Amino acid sequence: MMAGAIEMLAAGVVLMIASMIAGEKLTALPSLSGFLAVGYLALFGSIIAINAYMYLIRNVSPALATSYAYVNPVVAVLLGTGLGGETLSKIEWLALGVIVFAVVLVTLGKYLFPAKPVVAPVIQDASSE
């Protein structure tokens, strides 16, 4: 968790310096809902998410740890259809199914398709015959 905190802090410092150099200015004070949205994203989108990712990197296979990158867009689309009233075509539903199926294959691949042992050929010396 400490590594994640250091990464976030360092990135914040670098971005603050870059914004000062670029001459960025706060032209209007955000509303309360804007501050709450940033706080929500900071807590759930950054602090908790990066620590969960670091935990996964240390404790599971890289394929499983990075599978979130494929699942997140699917979750976002489903939230858009469920909460935002968006509609999807048949092709888009099919694409979501393909993505989920691929993530399942990556996750369960070692059980569904176990690796076959590699046997090296035995080379005999002419003197041993």
TrEMBL record:
| Alphabetically ordered keywords of this record | Cell membrane, Membrane, Transmembrane, Transmembrane helix
Q: Does the keyword Secreted apply?
A: no
Recorded hits in InterPro entries, A to Z, give: AA-Vitamin_Transporters, EamA_dom, EmrE-like
Any one of the GO CC terms: plasma membrane
Q: List each copy of the EamA domain by range.
A: 3-107
Q: Does the keyword Cell membrane apply?
A: yes
Pfam families found in the cross-reference section: EamA
Protein topology in the membrane: Multi-pass membrane protein
> Where is it predominantly found?
membrane
Compartments it resides in: Cell membrane
Q: Which residues cross the membrane?
A: 33-56, 68-85, 91-113
What's the domain of life for this entry?
Bacteria
Protein family per UniProt = Belongs to the EamA transporter family.
- Name this polypeptide is given: Putative DMT superfamily transporter inner membrane protein
Give the originating organism: Escherichia coli
The gene that this protein is the product of is: yedA_1
